[in-house]
Amino acid sequence: MQATEEAIRSVVQEVLSQLNNRGGYGSAPAGSTGDWGVFNSVDQAVAAAAAGQQQLLKATLEDRAKALEIVRQICDTQADELGRMELEETKIGRLDHKIEKLHLIKSIPGMEFLKTEAVSGDYGISLTEYAPFGVIGAITPVTHSLPTLACNFINMVAAGNTLVVNPHPSGAKIACEGVRRFNQAIYQATGLQNLVTIVGNPTLETADEIFNHRGIPLLVVTGGPGVARAALAAKKRAIVAGPGNPPVVVDETADIDNAAKSIIIGAAYDNNLLCIGEKEVFAVDSIFDQLMSAMGRHGGFQLNAQQVAQLTSLAFSPPKEPGGHALLNRDMIGKDAAVLAGMIGVNVPAGTQLLYGETDTNNPFVPEEQMMPFVPFVRCRNADHGIELAKEFEHGFGHTSMIHSRNIETITKMGRVMDTTLFVQNGPCGAALGNGGEGYGSFSIATPTGEGVTNPLTFTRFRRSTTVGHLRVI
């Protein structure tokens, strides 16, 4: 297997080298109606992906492996260029983290997850294999436009599917650029076409067309509450990576320096655009001031009460109706900590990664899934009180929660109470996805529909083949 993997990597590197030397894109294959997978209409994109899926099913597993390796290598070797393009288009997040997310694509699992299971006995043999759905309709977010698309590609194509993507309009250019690069390199290496297609000018209407298209048996949606609800309302199976508001509890037994460092790493990552990112902290009173000081030593800048109030008034408007959600100022999403501080007349030291300050639970930064590098800290009487508040303000999304504690009883209690898909103890949020912790990564965490951290098996149908009375040779 090692020799095969090395041969595949060698072929892929040669193809990418030739494409880079030629520069730009050549003409799309004869008979193709798209621009290397970029189409003007949903119908065209679905038809091309359907033809591509039939071609994929007839191809060798080696060619499928080459396609996956091409996407990994493009993301890895062209990360600087593609990450900069994504930041320039979306204008949210941090360049270093845009680049790092693309490097992380090389660790996304592929065909190794697809292992045939066999049971043999007196009555013969039974095989369980993992079959594709066909063409998958995917909605990708602006927060991680190309990384989510590339991750979905590896997971879905590994299982024998192709995909049609409706990207967030504010991240459509980089998503289309990625599709063109992937498809051209894959075609040059294998002859396979349109393993991923994309709507060049995505709208709410094109998303709705994908939700209801007869040629798409499965939907995979990564995004906010609105698109998640729309996908769940579609009359077909949907795998939905929905919203989160991940809380952190810090108790009196915690390693305070490690807690502060972890909160900075997680909450500041890509300016808190991650759905798993630390959004609010509930710390017990006895170590609260100690934790606040430690945050400043690890790259945070503490705002005083007046400054927190100023930032809050800029970040949120009152609800339109009593009891409703505060309205988030979307122009502040994903901006650097220094930019947010500058908006309230505060100059922060160079290298400041995160703003933080003490609030109560009435501050909208606590209940709302804001995606900016400011984290509210709330005092708690004890660990039980912190867990109670964490449960309340996670809102039952079942997404992600974190605790910093050396008390195994407290850790166990929180894990049971929160019942979140991801539960991290004594580390940053990214540890749950293999970034500083064990396990594999993904950019789609399917919480509302229960699949959890997606992988190639997520996008398969289980098929059983039974031979009665034969093929058991023992």
Provide a compact summary of the structure.
By secondary structure, this protein is of the alpha/beta class. It has helices spanning 2-22, 42-58, 61-77, 79-90, 95-103, 145-158, 172-190, 204-212, 225-233, 256-267, 285-297, 305-315, 337-343, 383-394, 408-418, and strands at residues 38-39, 117-121, 124-132, 135-140, 162-167, 196-199, 218-222, 237-241, 247-250, 280-284, 300-302, 316-317, 327-328, 354-358, 374-380, 400-404, 422-425, 445-446, 452-453, 460-468. Helix content is 41%, strand content 19%.
Structure description:
- Strand 5 (162-167), helix 7 (172-190) and strand 6 form a beta-alpha-beta unit.
- The chain has 474 residues and is an alpha/beta fold.
- 41% of the residues lie in helices and 19% in strands.
- The strands form five sheets. A seven-stranded parallel β-sheet has the order 11-14-15-10-9-16-17, sandwiched between helices. Strands 1-6-5-4-7-8 form a six-stranded parallel β-sheet, with helices on both faces.
- The mean pLDDT is 94.
- The protein has helices at residues 2-22, 42-58, 61-77, 79-90, 95-103, 145-158, 172-190, 204-212, 225-233, 256-267, 285-297, 305-315, 337-343, 383-394, 408-418; strands at residues 38-39, 117-121, 124-132, 135-140, 162-167, 196-199, 218-222, 237-241, 247-250, 280-284, 300-302, 316-317, 327-328, 354-358, 374-380, 400-404, 422-425, 445-446, 452-453, 460-468.
- The chain has two domains: 31-242 and 455-463, Aldehyde Dehydrogenase, Chain A, domain 1 (3-Layer(aba) Sandwich), CATH 3.40.605; 247-438, Aldehyde Dehydrogenase, Chain A, domain 2 (3-Layer(aba) Sandwich), CATH 3.40.309.10.
- Helix 4 (79-90) packs antiparallel against helix 7, helix 10 packs across helix 11 and helix 14 (383-394) runs parallel beside helix 15.
- InterPro entries: Acetald_propionald_DH-rel, Ald_DH/histidinol_DH, Ald_DH_C, Ald_DH_N, Aldehyde_DH_dom.
- Keywords: NAD, Oxidoreductase.
- Residues 41-295 form the Aldehyde dehydrogenase domain.
- It comes from Gimesia panareensis.
- This is Succinate-semialdehyde dehydrogenase (Acetylating).
